Amino acid sequence: xxxxxxxxxxxxxxxxxxxxxxxxxxxxxxxxxxxxxxxxxxxxxxxxxxxxxxxxxxxxxxxxxxxxxxxxxxxxxxxxxxxxxxxxxxxxxxxxxxxxxxxxxxxxxxxxxxxxxxxxxxxxxxxxxxxxxxxxxxxxxxxxxxxxxxxxxxxxxxxxxxxxxxxxxxxxxxxxxxxxxxxxxxxxxxxxxxxxxx
Length: 198
Description:
β6 (192-193) and β7 (196-197) form a beta hairpin. The protein has a three-stranded antiparallel sheet. It has a two-stranded parallel sheet with strand order 1-5. The protein has a two-stranded antiparallel ribbon with strand order 6-7. The chain is mainly alpha-helical. It has a domain at 5-131: Winged helix-like DNA-binding domain superfamily/Winged helix DNA-binding domain (Arc Repressor Mutant, subunit A). It is globular. The mean pLDDT is 88. The chain starts with a strand and ends with a strand. It has helices at residues 10-16, 19-31, 36-43, 47-59, 96-120, 126-131, 143-158; strands spanning 5-6, 34-35, 63-65, 76-79, 83-84, 192-193, 196-197. Residues 1-96 form the HTH arsR-type domain. It holds the Pfam family HTH_20. GO terms for molecular function: DNA binding; DNA-binding transcription factor activity. Keywords: DNA-binding, Transcription, Transcription regulation.
């Protein structure tokens, strides 16, 4: 399957910086089209809030009407793209706040997913516990080498062959991939390291 993607502008990043919107978009991408009512139930919020967030996502091109569903009374929504590509280095310095807010929201969502997986781990069959891991690898590299490594990892996941949908042993499996300098060990433009002057 060819993956379609969207690279949002600053206004789009601001729209995605709301955790509920980012979770909603994720649900539509992974689980498929849904109504505001069904999304509200899954997210634990009211339908009015869900409809508002869906309109915000639609205004920025993240979701569209699913015209193949619905009966006039129910409006179905679907994701317009399968992934979001965000350049972590804004083109303009004044856009940094929008990028920072978006990345912070992504981190919150990933943390919530990880916590939910850890809480569910004791309930999993042994083979799925054995297939899961919480690992980190600390290596000493240059920024150029680190970028090359993360690029290789992205390519690996993009080329990943999914198991057949009809395979009864196959389930949705999440790989979370984060790569970053060890906090407190790289000086920023103002000479700060980990919030302290170096």
